[in-house]
Amino acid sequence: MLVVIKKARKNLTERRLRILNREFFRLAEDVRKIKEHSIENLEYLIDTAVKNLEKNGFEVYFAKNVREGQKVVLDFFEDSSTVLKAKSMVSHELDLNSALSEKGIEVWETDLGELVIQMLNERPRHMTMPAIHIKAEEAFKVLGVQDFEGLKAKVRKLLREKLARADGGITGANVISSDGSLFIIENEGNARLVSALPEKVMTVTGVEKIVDSFSSAVKVSEVIWKSAGYYSPSYLNVISGISKSGDIEKRIIKGLHGPSKHAILFLDNGRMKARDSAFKETLYCVRCGACQFSCPSYEALNADWGTVYSGGIGAVWNYITGSESNPFYCLNCGACVETCPLRIDVPEMLRKLKMIKIGKIN
Ligand code: SF4
C-alpha cells in the first residue's frame, strides 16, 4: 500500500517540477487574495451567486448540516431510480451513497478511482486521487479483469449502460463564480456526461467555493489543475445554465439535450462558523491535494486522519465539518506549507487542534 502512495508522490512531484514556474506562483498569490476577499465577503457573494444562478435557470438550495443536506438531496431525487455520481468530496461529507441506497435508489460512482473504492467498500484516501491506496491488482480483481485494457473496456461498458438509463446525476464543483457559473475540472470526461445526460442533476458543493467573478474562477481553476500536476486538464466544464433552445419561433424549450433541472446545493456544515476561528485559512483551501503528497507522515503511515478527509488539511476539514478528526500524525515539519500554492499554514492549525483535543484550549 505504501509503495503505491510513494509512486504517486514521486510522479506528482516530478510533474509539478516541470509545470510550476514563476508565473504560476504569481497566479497563486492572486488566488490567495481572491480567496481571502471571497471568505471575507461570503454573505454578500452568496446572495449575489443565488440571484445570478437562479436567473441562469438553476434551482438553489442551502443546507446548514449533513441532515439538512441529505434531506434536500433525497427530496430532489425522490422519483429517481438510478443516480450516477461524478467525483465530489462534499457528497462523502453528506454520506450520499448510503442515504440514497437506503431509499432504494441505485447509486454508481463514475470516476474510476471512486468506482473502485465503492466496489471495495472503502473510502477516499486523497482529495483528487481517491483510490491512491489501491494496487492495480486489487482494482483488476474487483472488476473481474486481467489488465488495464480489460479494465477500460469493462468500466466503459458498465457505465455507458448505467448512463443510458440514469435519471439522476450528482456532481461536485471546484469553483462557483458569483455571476452564476459552475466550474468542474476533470480528466476522465465522466463529470461532463453525468452533468449532461440525466434528466435531473444536482451539484453539491461547500459555500466556500464561491468567488467574486468568472475571471477569478478561471484563475482558481488554473491553480488547482497546475498544483495537481497538469499543464491543463482534459476538460474544464463551465455550466452557466440549463439546456434550452429558442430555435422555433423563439419559444424556449428547456432540457432539450441536457437536464431539464439542474440544482445546486450549498453546504455550510461548520464553514461559516470557521470564518471566525483559528481554522479560517482552511476555507482558502482549493483542494488540489498537493500537500498530502509532501507529508512524510501521510506517505509513511497511510493513516486515518478522520472519517471523511485525509491528510493534515483533511484533519482540519474533518474538525470544522463536525466529523471525527485526528491531528496527531502531524510532525510539524512544514513541508505542506511549502507545497501549498496558497501557503496555508496547516501545521499551525493542527497544533491548535491537538491542543483542543487534549483539552488545553477550547
Ligand atoms: S491545503 Fe493547499 S496544498 Fe493542501 S489541498 Fe488545500 S490548497 Fe492544496
From TrEMBL:
Keywords, ordered alphabetically: 4Fe-4S, Electron transport, Iron, Iron-sulfur, Metal-binding, Repeat, Transport
Keyword 4Fe-4S: yes
Domain 4Fe-4S ferredoxin-type: 275-306, 321-352
GO biological process entries: lactate metabolic process
Superkingdom, taxonomy of origin: Archaea
Pfam families in UniProt: Fer4_8 (PF13183), LUD_dom (PF02589)
GO molecular function, a single term: oxidoreductase activity
Record-linked InterPro entries: 4Fe4S_Fe-S-bd, 4Fe4S_Fe_S_CS, FTHF_cligase-like_sf, Helical_ferredxn, LUD_dom, LutB/LldF, NagB/RpiA_transferase-like
SUPFAM superfamilies: alpha-helical ferredoxin (SSF46548), NagB/RpiA/CoA transferase-like (SSF100950)
PANTHER family the record matches: LACTATE UTILIZATION PROTEIN B (PTHR47153:SF2)
Protein name: Iron-sulfur cluster-binding protein
Protein species of origin: Geoglobus acetivorans
Lineage: Archaea, Methanobacteriati, Methanobacteriota, Archaeoglobi, Archaeoglobales
